[in-house]
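>> received
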Amino acid sequence: MAVLAVLATGPGVVGAGLAGPGGAPVGVPSRPALDPLDLALVRGEAVFEALRVFGGRPFRLEAHLDRLAASARAIDLPLPGGLEDLAARAVAAAGGGDAVLRLICTRGREGDGGPAAFAICTDIPASFEQERARGLRLVLLTTATDPLVRAASPWLLAGVKTISYATNMAAQRTARARGADDAVLVGLGGELLEAPTASLWWRTGQTLFTPSLDLGILAGITRATLCDLAPTLGLKVLAGVYTAEDLLAADEAFLSSSTREILPVVEVDATPIAGGHPGPTAATLQSALRQLAASPA
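>> returned
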């Protein structure tokens, strides 16, 4: 992954004259650095968003900023101002093409200073298109928790997008160790939840199924976009509580992600889905998503 641009603002930013609001674009030799005592490093106290940039235009930036603000409220983190401008300047500094944009807001030093914000543009990994072409193999991994109880316990931060992704990454590593590409997390009662970095979908007939947000999963921005797109393609969307039996009986399945877009699923726990080939609806939704991204704002 190549870094195309990094911008930062806030008292927690160190280096290259960027220790205050209005940080300027910096090149690789002088990237802004986080204060080593920032609570993001010490305790994981930070929130983030990651989204696609198409032709220099961040897709659904306002929705991502709204979700960032909701995550910040959940951990009582004050957001610095000017995030939309910071994002725009990072995209411009990256050359205005296609990219992945990450916005990260940290709490800063304990009892000292204030929050810092980083806008980072990176290139798009070639693996995204490779995975889209061949489809993903998934494994089911239990979380050994009751998702409804977790969702009703706000201090557990269900559905909150903090940088504390160690368990998500551990799930992906476990999946790869088992010969799969990714995982689907499952509740104690067998409830299908989400992938570590994506929303889960499947189609039976003309109906798309996806786990309910009431289960404490992340409210995906691309998930919401697909809910809007589906009726225009003759598809109905049902969000609810489902189990592996529902998924394995599907005509096709896929994941949705703001950075990876639509990724078809061809296998779950070594059982083929859709005959082991990417399904047609995933391709149709991917095309519709790209058309929407290319349309005027």
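>> Confidence is low (pLDDT under 50) at residues 16-29.
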